[in-house]
Amino acid sequence: MSEILDDEQAYLKRWYKFAKIHKTIPPPKKDTHLESLCYRIKIRDVYNIPPKKDVQQSIRILLNLYNSNTKEFFGRTYESPFLELNYSQANQQLEHPEVFCYFHLRQIESIQIAAEIVLFEKKDQVIQNRLIIGWCLGEIGQEQKYTLKRGSSRFLISNQTNVETVGQTLWMDIVENKEFTQIRNLVPEGCLCGYGDEVLGVHGYQIIQQLSLMQEQIAYVTSIEILVPTSVDLLISEYLKKYKEIKYKDDGPNDVHFLAKRLVFTFHNGWNYTNTRGLNNFITLEESSFQKSIDNQKIDYKKLTFKGALDVNGIYQEPKLGVFIIQLEYDVEFMVTNLGKQRTTVLCGWLPLVPKSTFEEEFIVGPGRSLSNQVLVDLSDIKYPITISGKINFGSIQSQNLPGPIINQQVFQPMDAPSLVKLPEQGGQQLGMDDDQRKIKQLENTLKQLQQDRQVSATNLAMDFENKLKIDKQKEQEYQKMVETIKKQHEEEIQKILEQYEDLKKMMTDINQTQQQYLTKAQPTSASLLGQQQVLQDQKELEKWRIIESMTSVPRKTFYKTQQQDLMVEAQFGGQALSRGDIAFLSQNGVRELFIQHTDYVENDEIKQKSLQYELADHRQSITVFIQLLSFKPRITMKSKDLEPTVYHYSEESRIPSRLFMIVNFYDFPEYITEPLIYENGFDKSSYTRCLEQSIPFLLIREQFLKTGASYKEPVFKFEIEPSSIGYPKAYKYFCEYLFNKCITIEIWDFDSMMIFGTIRLPLRQLLRQGQDASVVMRKADIIDKEFKKIKGELQVLIKCVGKEDKVTETLDNNSQMKRKVISTKRVEPLHVLEDEEKEIIKQDPNERIKERIKRIRRQEVPNDANTNSTKTLMEITKRKDLSKNAFVHSVIQSHLSDEKVIHPFFGKVEIIELEFRNPYATGQNFVISIDDQEVKCSGIQEIHLIHQPVEWKYYVDLYNHSKPQEFNMIQANQNNFTMFLTAKEKVVLLFKYQTFREVNQEFTELQKTEELFTIKGKQFLTQYSYPRQVAVFINTIEGQCVGGMRIKIFPHNNTIDHVYRFYERDNRQVSIQFPALYGYTVPSPDKKPILFCNNDQLVVEWANEFEIRISLRMPEVNKQTVFYILAYQDTYYKELIANWQIKLTSLAGIGIEVPLGQVQNTKLTVHVEISRQVKFYSSHPICVWFPQPYDQLVNLIPGKINIANLCVRLFTEQIHKVMVTCVDEQSHELVRGWILNISPTVPPISQVFDIQAPRDQMKTYIVKYANKQNNEVLLIFKSSNTQILKLIETRYLFKAQQIQDVTLQIHRVGEMDKAEVKVFIGDEDRSRDTFDCLLFRITYI
């Protein structure tokens, strides 16, 4: 035994010495939201070192990372091996070995490499002299020759300046290196390691040019038990009292609460923590009291235990050098006078542990610091040590299996945790496989294990049955039932595993079939390209993409057809006329006072036949549309009786917002976001609850009205459309067509959680005035959730359309020269401006002053002084000088074209431009038609095309009744132009088609020069946005003489969106999403599906079925949003646009959790912030995911620290849940962080089975008996997995010790089912895992 201990002591000494040598200074600044980049430093050709006779010369190169902003070194000094200098007979220095070194950093701004050359002179292998030759600073990302400066690089951190150079030079190359990425988690960030360094985990144990990882292992730590003397809590309280006196100058009462006690378990290789989660790999411990006899005395201890298995990956044991690092941490809360509750984490002890199967060790306690330089609490006064014991099982990273069940540990992988990009192969299979590939492998292994367990369990039970039978033959029937139950349970588990396995295989097959179909089409150019499908040319790459990328695809389940159709009808034509009771209720509360002055209106309660032609004939063409949000009524199906906290109410699984805001998409106006809205009749808790229980609508008012006492309270806003100010022809016609064919979309958002609650869509045809001054519509529309799966409530809306005569009534023709703008300059604005009394209240309210100051900073502009104007003028002059002569010549030629056309194209719609041309010659001639569009040269995007294909040309001639040419195939396309032959004096009408799929940039309203924008904004801007510009068309003879043409002035129009789809998915995943196609009144015929086009060529768009669209793409990195458009056309030429849908995909950090049904699973979230914030956490499904105290209240986040929030999860159904969790700043209401939780339930062991026969045609009440197994009084909560079939009359029962009570339940029949199985979960009020039962009710209907 003593020999083993001696070996362990020697092991730890060797590791400690190794770790001390490789200790690093962390980088001065870290951005945890970035991934560190890897770099390689290569130094070669150190020249001009003078030789010496009879002396052997060698050099060493010292490298350091240097921050030029802070003038500090950081990381670790790398010292190269001795490099022998050799000289030729002519004393010419020969080449020496190259030196290479690696490092990784998140931020490289202001970071340089300080290189220093030291010369050693040896004689008879003894160093006689050491001389610093010089130093230099290398720039990251460059290969350059540097001349050394005299002295040492330590001059950089002194006040001295030394720019004198010496004659020696060197070449330094600092470039990115992907090879080092696979081992970067083995060394700390900013740590230099290079040739000759020993790193545990690197193949061969040394840094060489070819880098690869060793075989990684994973450890499962079980049976964890920590014994802590009770005096430790008292010493921590005393420590916090002193801490509070020093930091906060507070000597008040010392009220300390221990929130959580956790154990950190990591692996350290002498350089860094090599496990994925680093010091975030922790578990929360359960606490109980315990007495231990020491020296015939009973000592009080706190026993801290963990019943599951904690996994630690990134373990490398050869050579034997790495150790486990264990830390015991307490989260504590204490009171500070004038500041309230404060929280901190104290470190009680730590220890390095040699890898072994079992361990029992004592913690190292304070005073002092841990390996990670954390301060230890002074526990030197405790008489008895803190001990820890447990077991460790080592396994391959591939299997990750332990004998027996493993409970998921309560950890979350932070964003900055390093990940392995490439792992070595073993047995012909790649270890770094995708999650779904690994899951399939695990399912296969689990399937085999279950089959073996079934045989072993049944055999053991049968043998035990035979032994028991000899003792008591009366138990024969009981044991037979147990054997059958065991067999059935194993069969069910095997069947479930097989179904999961087959589902994954089927998913792969479906996705492979999907990829064989066409990808998203590019922008249409000509009829010859229409209908052609773009496929990947390289079949090997296609196969690789199918296998690797599609494995992580998570397709949404197709909706049930009947339910989907019903919801689509609600979403498209949602809304009913307000009942008389609704109108009386609203009128009684004064919501219609705003419109009393308008008496001449038509109130439309139903969709009637309206005439578009009659509407267009109205002389009142200046339109104002008022929208007033009246009331909000959520749909209530259950309340939170058993859910903490109880101050919230819930609709099904969703939280009902206490404050709302709306996002409105109307015509071509920018997306309008309302101010926060609250409930006038549900402001306090009692009235709020009464409205919910009695199904009374919440009256919506402005929050600003209650805060500041503003003069009006109604949430109303207006849109103004004035054709004279818009400045393009047919403005009134386009708007009337929009009202006739489209719907308005209003999104309802939770202002506190920043989550979307649902959406309504109201048809606008009812707003057509039909000759009247005004038209009023009052509707209540069902709120559909963003997944289109359920109705979550209703919103009552009043919309009024008022017409008046336009300021300018003259007709605007196509060639009008008056000033035109892309869209209306009228902004969407509230009906009233801020009153003076409101401004005065803002001055007095400190919170309002903070918000106002933030708004001013965000809209702050550079002051317009003389210097700024001078600088701007010089920049403009410089940029204009850079314009090419060719562009100038083209602009001069364009100005002489007599024919000018002005178009105002909408997004995605085709504009046809006619050009009439007659052959001016008395003989037949060939003419060349060219389109001079600088956009093609600068961005590569061509949006204007000559229609020359015969079929397409005939289609547009027949559609618009243009004059027909002599032949439709008279135009031939060349590489850059078109050629046509005309006979003497022959006339032809050429048709040009313009169509854009770029969004309009609101910054520019006047014609812009593409070359200048390209110089100022860059190519990316041009590919993303359209803007007013000019295109020229030239018709030349073969000799190059210009005989005709035209100028086309393009003023693009903004989007009119039919619906906005919002989806939240896990980052960096290949996803497949299905959603219903929502149209306005223009619904395509059932026998012909519209042709889909997407302006994002990085994804696949297709019809999933008759009603739904499927998109497949890879999600971007975390916290990024992708916005694109899908357009539906009736024809193959993309002329008849019937729908324009905007898709907004947001990628969030993903967490996968497995939860035993009915039991509470705890996990943690980590949040990194750059500034101090006061935040609150929210869950989209609070019934199954919630935050326990104190994380359900306001939480202070500290910058530069890993902030942790506890999270509880519990499921009652066997469906996979997808839950969104947000962290919102309470002051600015910014979304600080979001997560997507994929929660998979696991079936717990069945405690008892009840077989019940129930009547088919009626409900029946049953009574079952349940016994409290505890020796103390306990309040138990009963939950049914399906309340539609089995409903518990009472859900709470107070049991005394060992008491048996009757539990009353009701059995219902749903549909035409003959059999049903329902589980009832039983747990105590504290949600402890120690008190838990699962009852199975097998119901047969007779």
From TrEMBL:
Key word Hydrolase present: no
GO cellular component: cytoskeleton; non-motile cilium
Residues in coiled coil: 433-460, 487-514
Superkingdom of origin organism: Eukaryota
Any one biological process term the GO annotation gives: negative regulation of canonical Wnt signaling pathway
Residue intervals of the NPHP4 C2-like domain: 600-790
Boundaries of every NPHP4 Ig-like domain copy: 901-1018, 1157-1240
UniProt KW Coiled coil keyword: yes
Pfam families on file: Ig_NPH4_3rd (PF26015), Ig_NPHP4_1st (PF26190), NPHP4_C2_3rd (PF26186)
Key words of the record: Coiled coil
PANTHER family hit by this protein: NEPHROCYSTIN-4
Listed name of the protein: Nephrocystin-4
Provenance organism: Paramecium primaurelia
